[in-house]
Amino acid sequence: MLQWTTGNIGSRSLHAILARADLELAGVYAHGADKVGRDAAELCGWPEPTGVLATDDVEALLATGADACCYNPLWPDLDHLCRLLAAGVDVVTTAAWITGGKQSPDDRARIEEACRVGRSTIYGSGAHPGITNLVGLVLSGACERVDEIRITESVDCSTYESGATMSHMGFGRDLGTPGLEEFVRTESEVFAESAAMMADALDVTLDRLTFDVTFTPAHGDSDLGFMTIPAGTIAGVFGYHRGWVGDRNVVSVGFNWTMGQHVTPPKPLAHGHVVQVFGRPNMRTVLHCLPPHDWDEEGWMGPGMIYTAMPATNAVPYVVAAPPGIVTLKDLPVVTGRTR
Ligand SMILES: NC(=O)c1ccc[n+]([C@@H]2O[C@H](COP(=O)([O-])OP(=O)(O)OC[C@H]3O[C@@H](n4cnc5c(N)ncnc54)[C@H](OP(=O)(O)O)[C@@H]3O)[C@@H](O)[C@H]2O)c1
């Protein structure tokens, strides 16, 4: 196994790889020079040294002959992905990939060609998108008729310490920023991929995908440590990527996000992932990710990062067994965790 970067999510994935008897760590890719040469254990809080040192030498990582890679960089790099896949390394990723639908036709074709050359597979998942889409599809199985599957991440994001990600979603920016809606649409387009994937699983052909968003300004200053949200700038982002058949909105994937205490979102927060199926009957559940009884880390960010990492990391054996190409959760058996 390779672990590609060890940030918020990658470090949780790395920890899980070391904990699993059926996965063997062969290498760790480091984006930051400060991580090169450091033992994997140090990068994820594993108690004993592993002897596997992080590197930015892609050839050396490919030379390990690893079967699979947990790919969790902040921004995906198509060249890296293609090199991994063409070398026969199956990729599971949380990094803005569900179907590859938001890629340009040329870039998606490059990925498909790399999979063909390497007889390899790429699979994207996570919490949202990822598990939430799966739960929506499962609930739709309880309905005689499905009108819409709607999934909303309804949370205060200020425990997710990724300033770059949050700034790209509009937080801390001026409301009048030109092109902001389109900017947020493209930054969050992986949700549109997951909406299209759900439609595909429902055997529905979408006419079009749309995006709508409401920005809410902060009514006071917030200093979150890793970023600030000054009063008057954006502290609430409420939007959906929607898939349509004619005038019917059949799939919606979106977010009701706030950051900091000084904002009143358009809808009260549910503090979880709200999964709704409208139809006959209506189905609804809220997924809450909570710390376990033995949680010994400071703060509550960790459980959410594990929740985001594991749908990809746990999928490794299933993806290794899958046929080459781009696969989605609709193509895999139900991915489960492991007891120990
Ligand atoms: N599906 C979901 O539910 C979900 C939820 C949240 C996030 N995500 C996605 O998961 C991925 C990882 O998120 P994260 O919170 O773990 O991110 P992060 O901690 O902010 O960054 C991950 C790692 O990316 C590397 N990195 C930093 N700057 C970079 C740059 N400019 N270009 C390329 N790599 C860079 C660093 O690697 P080193 O550690 O090696 O220096 C960093 O640790 C992101 O693509 C994010 O959008 C998915």
UniProtKB/TrEMBL annotation:
For this protein, the record's InterPro entries field holds: DAP_DH_C, NAD(P)-bd_dom_sf
Signal peptide as annotated in the record: none
- Residues passing through the membrane, by range: none
Q: Which residues form the 2,4-diaminopentanoate dehydrogenase C-terminal domain?
A: 137-336
Native organism is Nocardioides fonticola
What's the name of the protein? Dihydrodipicolinate reductase
**Top-level taxonomic group:** Bacteria
